[in-house]
Design brief:
285 residues; EmrE-like; transmembrane; 12 helices; DMT family transporter; mainly alpha; 0% strand
Length: 285
């Protein structure tokens, strides 16, 4: 079940990133983050009420709150790094996020078998290559590298925190709701500060309502991905769950190929193949 839930996580995150990337071509990234997370928080609030999740309050919710505070910082750092570019360096470098949950799993005593260790190495290499690493060309700004490392640390921390947020399904709904409310508060505060400073944090012509379904998809896919990752981490080794969940850049690249007819570079195609091999090794090890 760990492999199944983790692969579902990578699929959902990959599609959410693809949708978010398309939306940020038409509106500011901060608007995409805040609106999509607000929609997700609303839906989760209804689920919490419907399932009686309010009764699951406890100390574990602090993990969800922390994940909600860290998540927007990581996401905005990543978007800013992508803006500074080059994307061929930023995107693969962000996959270092997997080091946080894997490291925690090893510290807690998890010891992958030989096949799983090989699968982790092959899958991580595949994800890096699928990002289309840029080994030459324009110089990389130090700020872009620092922002990417901040984003990677943040994403990895969210991985680890959300896995500890709840042990029951109804409690998971409440934990995800708390996380999303914190996301909205943090992102909303950044949006308010940006508007006060006169930056282009909001669309000039207001929110295009035709984009609301796409924003809802991005927010709900991201929520579902956090939920399936939490389930994956609860059902098996965190080291395996984290690596399989980190395959989402492959999904994003394939979605761009399928929907936008973007051609995969040879290194990206090789990376997708290696990621698949690593997945098989992890699932069978």
């Amino acid at each position: 079940m760990t492999a199944l839930f983790a692969l579902a996580t990578s699929l959902l995150w990959g599609l959410a990133d693809f949708g978010g990337g398309l939306l940020t071509r038409r509106m500011p990234a901060l608007t995409v983050v805040v609106v999509s997370q607000t929609i997700a928080a609303t839906v989760l609030g209804a689920l919490v009420v419907a399932t009686g999740g309010w009764s699951e309050t406890g100390p574990r919710l602090w993990f969800a709150l922390a994940a909600g505070l860290v998540g927007p910082i990581a996401l905005l750092s990543f978007y800013q790094a992508l803006a500074l570019g080059p994307m061929g360096v930023v995107s693969p470098l962000a996959t270092l996020s997997v080091a946080v949950p894997v490291g925690i799993g090893l510290l807690l005593g998890e010891r992958p078998g030989p096949l799983q260790a090989a699968g982790i190495a092959v899958a991580v290499l595949g994800v890096v290559l699928a990002g289309g690493p840029q080994l030459k060309g324009a110089p990389v700004q130090r700020q872009a590298i620092l922002l990417t490392l901040v984003a990677a640390l943040g994403f990895g921390t969210v991985f680890a925190l959300i896995a500890e947020a709840s042990t029951t399904v109804t409690g998971l709904f409440l934990a995800l709701f708390v996380q999303r409310v914190a996301n909205v508060v943090t992102g909303g505060a950044a949006l308010y500060v940006g508007v006060r400073r006169g930056s282009a944090s909001l669309p000039r012509d207001g929110l295009p309502w035709r984009s609301v379904p796409a924003l809802a998809f991005v927010g709900l896919a991201d929520v579902a991905a956090n939920g399936t990752y939490a389930l994956a981490a609860q059902h098996g080794p965190v080291t395996v769950a984290a690596v399989l969940a980190s395959l989402y850049p492959v999904v994003t690249a394939l979605a761009a190929r399928g929907f936008l007819s973007e051609r995969l570079r040879p290194v990206q195609a090789a990376g997708a193949g290696l990621a698949l091999v690593g997945t098989v090794l992890l699932a069978t090890g």
